[in-house]
Amino acid sequence: MNPGSDAWIGVLGGGQLGRMLALEARRMGVRVMKWTGGDDSGASSLGDVVIHDPFDSEAGFDRFVSGVNAATVEFENIPSSLLERLETALVLRPGAAAVAICQHRAREKAFLSQNGIPCAPFHIVESAAELGRALADLRADAILKTAEFGYDGKGQVRVAADASPDDLDKAWQSLGGGRAVLEKRIDLAAELSVVVARSESGETALFDPAENLHRNHILDLSIIPARLPDAVLAEARQIATGVADAMGYIGVLAIEFFLDSGGRLMVNEMAPRPHNSGHHTLDACVTSQFEQQLRAVCGFPLGSPRLLQPAVMWNLLGDLWLDPHTPPDWTQILATPGATLHLYGKCSARAGRKMGHVTFVAPTIEEALQHADRCRAHYGWAKHA
Q1: Which of 7, 112, 155, 172 could form a cystine bridge with 1, CB 3.0-4.6 A?
Q2: Buried b vs exposed e over 100-134: b needs ≥16 C-beta within 10 Å?
Q3: What is the DSSP string of 16-44?
Q4: Cβ neighbourhood burial of 23 (10 Å; 0-12, 13-18, 19+)
């Protein structure tokens, strides 16, 4: 493919990540066909062509594969059978195998363990009885997580080390039964993430690690560069590169890490796509994570991930909307030096829904945080930790 030469890429999904990818594609003369699977929040409107058929639609499949040169995923919970089928019909980046690892916690943990990549101690469990035995082996408080379809803290429940058989049964039933992952609860010092782009040739480009602060299990603030020791950041970069290489990954991959109180770095989760903690790259880096995704999918050379200025990214959740269809007055943000407002065009707001974000850039992290705190206070949002 060549920019501006009637190049088309396909995007599976209809949310904000595909919207931001489409904006970068338009700038570079690449057209976008989106296949939403029938779940469209309103954020898909910037696609040049939008298919709203469900993912099991033969008509949708035929239209998609006949209309694009290459395709990618906007979120990981795409049916594996569809990805495998698409991979036989067109260029799919990342590939079906890589997405399958990231969309299933048990497969993800197995991949990390098999490749010697540090993660929290865990057990795969398939019954309440197995849960009890696994908890006894861990001898610590733990988190029970569904094997599939978990994000933003969904599909998980805490389990105390001394939980009774009744407590274990309730925890098991609360997740609906089935396969699950029991993971030792970590005494957290910090959470961070690294977004890495990898090309077909194995070239990699890593963005500066982001320090992430969560609210109700949803990312609230990302601070870049992370305020952590250089040795920790170097290790995070090394691990992220190793993960991408081990998968033979092509595209943008996000690696989320736990840093425990003893200074040990562990992989928490992986996302086979651009990531919420990388949204600052649109305003604060030479090349954004979305442009990198486009470059990798189309086979273009990767761009520079260099950070131009320290940045803070604030997630705008639907909680800020007093009315689901009426956004707040954004004057305070627009009047703040170094602030850039991004809204996703979603039809209505609800608590916890990601409606947009703001990037604050400044000569220092402290100044960027001050701007973010003033805006958050204005909109009644809690100050950062």
Answers
A1: 7
A2: bbbbbbbbbbebbeeeebebbbbbbbeebebbbeb
A3: HHHHHHHHHHHHTTEEEEEE-TT---SGG
A4: middle
- The alpha carbon torsion through 14, 20, 22, 28 (nearest 10 deg) reads -170
Per this entry, what is the length of the chain? 385
Distance CA 256, CA 267 (A): 6
Alpha-carbon Rg for the chain, nearest whole angstrom, is: 21
DSSP 278: G
Q: Is 217 exposed, middle or buried (0-12, 13-18, 19+ CB in 10 A)?
A: exposed
Pairing of strands 70-73, 91-92: parallel
Structural contact between residues 172 and 156, judged by C-beta atoms closer than 8 angstroms: no
> CA torsion sign, 263 to 268 to 274 to 276?
negative
Each residue of 259-312: pLDDT tens digit? 999 999 999 999 999 999 999 999 999 999 999 999 999 999 999 999 999 999
**Closest to 364 measured CA to CA, from 182, 268, 224:** 224
In terms of DSSP bridges, do strands 354-361 and 311-317 run parallel, antiparallel, or are they unpaired?
Answer: antiparallel
- Copy the structure tokens of residue 127: 């019954």
Tell me the β-bridge partners of 9. Answer: 32, 70
pLDDT digit string (tens) for 305-343?
A: 999 999 999 999 999 998 988 999 999 999 999 999 999
pLDDT at 152: 56
Averaged pLDDT for residues 65-83: 94
**Is the whole-model pTM more than 0.90?**
yes
Which of 152, 374, 195 is closest to 282 using CA atoms?
195
